[in-house]
Amino acid sequence: MASTHTEILQNIKDLQTESLSIIRISEPVSASHPNKRSSDASSDVFESPSPASLEADLAHYKDLFSKLRFSYLEQVTKEKFLRAIVGDPPLIVEAAENTELEAQLAEVKAILKEQKGTVAALVKELERRGRDLSRRYETVNLQTTLLEKLPAEINGVKETIGQLRAQADRSDTRSISAQGMNLPLDATISFTREKQMELAQLNEEVKSLQQALPRQTKELAGLNYELKRLEKERGNTVENAREAVKRRKDGGETGDGLEMRGRWLKGCEDGLRELLGVEA
User: Fold this and answer.
1) Is 251 left (phi over 0), alpha (psi -120 to 50) or beta?
2) What is the 3-state secondary structure (H, E, C) of 24-63?
3) N or C: which end of the chain has fewer CB within 10 A?
4) What is the pTM of this model?
5) Where would I find the H helices in the chain?
6) Phi, psi of 35 (to 5 degrees)
7) pLDDT value at residue 179
8) Cis geometry, peptide bond prior to residue 214 (ω within 30 degrees of 0)
9) Distance, CA of 134 to CA of 1 (rounded, Å)
10) With contact defined as beta carbons under 8 Å apart, do 90 and 84 qualify?
């Protein structure tokens, strides 16, 4: 696999070293003319071409061809006019002939206009393809860079896997979680699904508990209030009982009324202790 990768990478590099630009293709033609024009917008276009220099060169050549076309038409017109005058016999053109020539000229102009539209469409298509090729070229360069880095990364991953496997083999005791980390793909997927189901059940339980929490908090507040009230009543009852015992010892009250009151208080105290779970 390493040799195949090396061969592919070398083939890509060989293709990238070949220059396929239009400027390079036109070098043999331009080299046959040693005297370069001095009025070029970019005289070093063949050495270091750039979009700006190419645009300037294109505008320059368009201007030259426009001037050349005008000069050609002017010279041809003068030549035909002079031949018509000095000819023997002189060339006399009738109005009908001019009309016929104008009709032919109109047809030729229509054809020329159509051809210009076709050329403009071809130019746009070439520009689109050029941009597309430029994007592809940049993508290929980026992928080539990644391809050069990929073998080292693959080797690093293989070394890491080997180290982890060696550590797993040297381990004598493995827990359930450690065994779960060494499962095949199908078992790992099943294990993950089970854990996800358990997690979903736990989330549902937590959600139900969170929904019941306000009600239980309210009930707890009510029980705390009731407990405080009972504790207060218990304190009052105990205090009354102590005062009754004290009065009985001092002889402040005698007779059956004091005895019945004491029994009643004692019964209240026992009932509260049993209710609150307080030992005597």
Assistant:
1) left
2) HHCHHHHHCCCCCCCCCCCCCCCCCCCHHHHHHHHHHHHH
3) C
4) 0.36
5) 2-17, 22-25, 27-31, 51-86, 95-170, 176-180, 185-250, 256-276
6) -85, 105
7) 57
8) no
9) 31
10) yes
